[in-house]
Amino acid sequence: MPTAPVYLSIAGSDCSAGAGLQADLKAGFALGCYPLTAVTCVVSEVPGLVEGIVPMEPAFVAEQVRICLRHFPVQAIKTGMLYSPDIVRAVAAELEHFRGPLVVDPVMIATAGEALILQEAIAVYEELLIPRTTLLTPNGDELAKLLGCAPIRSTEELEQAATALAERYHCAILAKGGHVSGHTCTDILVRPGLPTLRWSHPRTEGVSTHGTGCTLSSAIAAGLAAGLPLAEATAQGLEYITRAIAASYRLGMLDAVNHHAPASC
Fold first, then answer.
1. Is the model's pLDDT at 7 over the cut of 90?
2. 212 catalytically annotated
3. Which residue out of 186, 209, 234, 242 is catalytically annotated?
4. Is residue 214 among the annotated active site residues?
5. What's residue 261's pLDDT?
6. Would residue 211 show up in a list of annotated catalytic residues for this protein?
7. β-bridge mates for residue 189, sequence order
8. CA distances from residue 224 to 7, 135, 174, 231, 232 in whole angstroms, order as listed
9. Catalytic one among 48, 140, 177, 213?
10. Does 176 participate in catalysis according to the annotation?
11. Which residues, in sequence order, are bridge partners of residue 46?
């Protein structure tokens, strides 16, 4: 009987299916994994617009995580939108005995600019979740928020911020360069005690980047679940999301651009 690597995504649900758990499912299946999901929030959104967020009861989020870990051979975990301090605490408690790689996408600010986390949840992230994190995947805006610094405007500032955060948290940081202006997008992997790695590619113009952070972190988790080292899993994830953006297509008749990465990417 064929088998597939299993990873668990603990994140929010996006009704437009471009981000959140829906994006995680598409990325996982496309990369040969079996992705499990635990729903933390239900978000009423489309690319460029968030209308409402309804969080799940923390105990129910914990129950979903618990039953997945009990009944499946979970080889990696990715967290996305956790939203509230109580949900972060509930998730952290359930992961106390998990020894596999943990990818934390600190979903704090939507591409459209809306806050996707309560301010008081950030301290709980830092206390309970980040100390056991294998890889943190902030974009430039999230890096600045975590560091409490000015907006990041250049690739040099992005790398400096990632280095500072890696030193603070003692975990690997993948600083995503999509929010930094320029014709080229550079993503930077800072690993404590190891050489810094950089990947650059031309920026694809005219597409929405809604859900690309979710997709990337899930693609990396898929690689880690399959047994790839962190650098290789990161390279695979970046290659996947770059191809997905280039091959994206538009759906619907909204003013916003609807970006969906085909599952074949």
1. yes
2. yes
3. 209
4. yes
5. 44
6. yes
7. 174, 197
8. 9, 11, 14, 10, 9
9. 213
10. yes
11. 49
